[in-house]
C-alpha cells in the first residue's frame, strides 16, 4: 500500500511544444527501483518508448529519440518530458515501475495518461513597453516587446504608421529596440504575430 504511482488522466499538449506526463511516487525504505518504463498505445498496438534499468536509460523508439527524457537523480520522479510534439504523439502512455524489496519480492505499479496533441492558433499579441514606459526622454534607450501564445514557432512583425494611412515594416523580431531615441521616433507602432 505504501508504494503507489500518481499521475493524471489526461494531458493536452500543443503541437511543436513540449509537455510533461507526471508519474511520481514516495520512495519507501527497503524498496529499490529496479526498472522504470514508459510505453505508448496507439492504433491498438503498444510499444515501449523508454526504459531505465541497471544498465542505464534506453530510448527504444527512434521517432522519440532526442525528444523524450525522465529526470535523473530525482528519486520518486518518473515523469516523462516529451518535446517537439507531433500530431501522431497522441495516445495512451503508461508509466510502469518495478521495485525490489530486501526479501527479493517485487512490486509492480503502473499509471496511464492520455495525451492529446492539439494545434493552437496564435493569440492576439500584447505589447510590453520597456522600463521607461511609453513616454520616453530623447536620447534614452528603450524597447517594445510583442508577445503571443500558441503552437510554436510564432513569428512576429513590427510596423509603424506613416502618413496617408500607410504602414512601414520595421522588424521581424519579437523585440523592437532603440539605443538612442529621437523626437522623430514618436508615433504609433504595432505588431503582428503569426504561426502555421
Give a brief outline of the structure.
The chain has 196 residues and is mostly beta strands.
Keywords for this entry:
single chain; 196 residues; mainly beta; Immunoglobulin-like; 2 domains; Ig_sub; VSIG4
Describe the structure.
Helices cover 0% and strands 49% of the residues. With 196 residues, it is mainly β. It has two domains: 5-118, Immunoglobulins (Immunoglobulin-like, Sandwich); 126-195, Immunoglobulin-like (Sandwich). The strands form four sheets. It has a six-stranded mixed sheet with strand order 1-9-8-3-4-5, with no helix packed on it. Strands 2-7-6 form a three-stranded antiparallel sheet, with no helix packed on it. It has a three-stranded antiparallel sheet with strand order 10-11-14, with no helix packed on it. The protein is elongated and about 80 Å long. The protein starts with 9 loop residues before the first strand and ends with a strand. The mean pLDDT is 93.
CATH architecture identity of the largest domain: Sandwich
**Biggest beta sheet summary:** 6 strands, mixed
Q: How many helical stretches?
A: 0
Count of individual domains? 2
> What is the number of beta strands?
15
Q: Which stretches of 5+ consecutive residues score pLDDT under 50?
A: none
**What shape does the CA trace take?**
elongated
CATH class wording of the largest domain: Mainly Beta
Rg, nearest Å = 25 Å
In terms of DSSP E residues, the strand content is over 45%
Strand order of the largest sheet: 1-9-8-3-4-5
Output the structural class.
mainly beta
Question: What value does the average pLDDT take?
Answer: 93
The helical percent reads under 10%
Oligomer: single chain
GO molecular function: complement component C3b binding
Protein name: VSIG4 protein
InterPro entries: Ig-like_dom, Ig-like_dom_sf, Ig-like_fold, Ig_sub, Ig_sub2, Ig_V-set, VSIG4
Organism: Grallaria varia
